[in-house]
Amino acid sequence: MLDAFWAAPPVSRTITAITFVESVLVHTNLVEMRRVVWFWPFVSKFPPELWRLVTAFTLSGPQVGILLDPYNLWTYGTALENDSPRFNNSGDFLVYILFVGSVILGLGWGVLGAFRFTPALILALMYTYSQVNRGKKIKFFVVSFDAKYLPYVTLFLTWILESPQAMILQAVGIPAAHLYDFLTLLWPTFGGGKNIVQTPSFLARWFGSDRSVPHSITKRYGTAIRPVDQPPRASSSGFGSSLSGIWGNRGQGRRLGGD
Questions:
Q1: Looking at residue 61, what DSSP letter applies?
Q2: 97-111, 138-152, 175-189: lowest mean pLDDT where?
Q3: Which of 1-15, 42-56, 83-97, 209-223 has the lowest mean pLDDT?
Q4: Is residue 189 within 8 Å of residue 234, measured between CB atoms?
Q5: Most buried among 11, 106, 111, 182, using CB within 10 Å?
């Protein structure tokens, strides 16, 4: 088990480990919950309790949630960090986590007044996973369905097993993950815009990506080089693949009135 843990990608294993340890400490009353959840007056005071920027996203629900929430973070986090075409390396995945976490914080706390954001973060991971694996059949407990329905099935179960309010708080993970998709894929690829969510060079170097090689993609199985004149590859499914499929079959255009 330890070998599998250390072989896992660094960002996902760290988030999972923090979530499990923190959740056990809180739900066994060894640490008071009020010391780890989001509370702006304690973050803005001096000295600021900045750890809440992390711990508010890494506290599971009670009872079975102590196992289920870390399991979901591990499952969907490692799947994205290891194998998703959206992330060249763990640095890209960390930037994704920071971005969606910031949006979740703004919506969850700023609009809804939430103090714990772990369910929304898990749903954001599920949403991104569902977009990358659209068309793939997955098994959720005993039911099989298309991966694109995963976040909505999860929301339905939260509504049934917990409450409509819990479902609403969890649902903010979807717009957070979709905004990341829009800014990093849809708008740059199909709208002619610029990707404004870039991985800082120091993170790229820290996680082993060679940014000196144009269009290089570093994965756990090696480094692939994309031709310079080839645009970034969109996801193999979903909205992006639909548009690329439509225009990819067109011939070379010609100017009206030309030879």
A1: P
A2: 138-152
A3: 209-223
A4: yes
A5: 11
Whether the ω angle into residue 200 lies within 30 degrees of 0, i.e. cis, is: no
Q: What is the CA radius of gyration of the chain?
A: 20
Q: What are the tokens at 17?
A: 């480990």
- In which residue are the tokens 């793939």 written? 136
Question: For residue range 123-146, what is the model confidence (pLDDT) as tens digits?
Answer: 999 999 999 999 999 987 788 999
**Residue 148 has what DSSP assignment?**
G
Q: What is the DSSP letter of 36?
A: T
> Which of 84 and 220 is assigned the larger pLDDT?
84
Distance CA 221, CA 203 (A): 19
Count CA atoms closer than 13 A to 248's CA, side-chain side: 9
Reported in sequence order, the residue ranges of the chain that DSSP labels E, i.e. its strands, are: 137-140, 143-146, 216-219, 222-225
pTM for the whole structure: 0.80
- Whole-angstrom Cα distance, residue 41 to residue 57? 18
Smallest CA-to-CA distance from 176 within 105, 252, 253, 72 is with: 105
Which of 30, 24, 52, 28 shows the shortest CA–CA distance to 40? 52
The reported pLDDT for the residue numbered 2 is 79
Q: What angle do CA 247, 126, 201 make, to 5 degrees?
A: 75
